[in-house]
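User: quick one, fold this
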Amino acid sequence: MFFERPESGTRALLVHIQQHQSELSSAGELNELVMSAGLEPVGCLSSARKYPHPGTYVGAGKLEEIDAAAGQLDAALIVFDEDLSPSQERNIEKILQRRILGRTGLILEIFAQRARTHEGKLQVELAQLEHASTRLVRGWTHLDRQRGGSGKGEGAQAGLGGAGETQLESDQRMLGDRIKKINQRLEKVSKQRGQNRRARKRSDIKSVSLAGYTNAGKSTLFNQLADAEVHAADQMFATLDPTLRRLEVPYVGKVVLSDTVGFIRQLPHTLVDAFRATLEEVSEAALILHIVDSGASERGERIDEVNKVLAEIGAEKVPQLMVYNKCDLLGKAPLIERDSQGRPIRVWVSALEKSGMSMLLDCVSELLADELIETTVTLAPSEGRLRSKLFSLGAVVREMAQSDGTISMDLRIEQRNLDRLSRSYSNSSL
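Assistant:
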């Protein structure tokens, strides 16, 4: 006799475990995650627990309370705000006769629904398979049934085929094969991204990456800055697939702006590993725009969680500009805050209201620009292409037409850009 997993459903009873003092472990965030997965939260139970019960995480008394509430609310699915071990999932399902889903499984489900590109789907599938592989160990008892081994013949000749492999061993082998193939495909993606980054460096094009807690407004801000049409919605993990766009920054010229997946408390390590090729865009960036939902009550803790993930992917030393988005919800006007040396450290904007965008670009320019100089040049009427290039770099402070047909231009420009233009237009007066 073996235990079959219960049928799942869309009506979900939420179980919020308050283990830490962190406000981020909130029932509200769990509710948002459940709705983002397309499920219907019908109730929520909370439990303060310092140490998890080894067998069921919450203990027998709380399980009885969960069972009674699920029966009253007709909930076929129980969602926990913490990760459960494979044995804990199995034990709880056996007792409650309802499908159980932990935090990692819930986030993986959302990612699976949101992935659009081939690369994104591969990354999510890899994370799901690696998560499932841990669930096979000490998992459901029917996986111990053996297969293979003919056992034909009599006497000493009987059973020469051997016991064969168990269902568990067969599933582990198939999972391992699939994980290996996906890793090989993603390795090619990683190499391609690396080649693209090296090409940008050879072209002296800097990159800027957006990072932040999920639903902080990164994609909306990305659309405003790059005039793009990336999907943006007021929901968690609305955007998974990485997007790169060219952006013109004053004095600096063209940079590559990249949008990345949002971070969250306890972002599953399987997802971090699966999306590592994508997240390398952040670790290799010249500047990270750390987008913060300025209206979130747990704003400081969300910043800490994002910094933890950035450290995990090796991006902790990349310079950051804190971008406090949604300032309109606080009744606050766009504002730049600077350190004692006058460098921008925080900028308050509203991506939805399109306010503060020019301030943000000015801050990016200040942080990316190397050795800005001020100079005056005089261009002949035939040097129209050079004049256009200077305007495209945002280097022209003032322009005056002279009586002899020449053009006098006051410039504020990066030294490296001036040197590059001097080489490209060797016959000019630069």
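User: anything notable?
Assistant: The domain at 372-424 is CATH 3.30.70 (Alpha-Beta Plaits).
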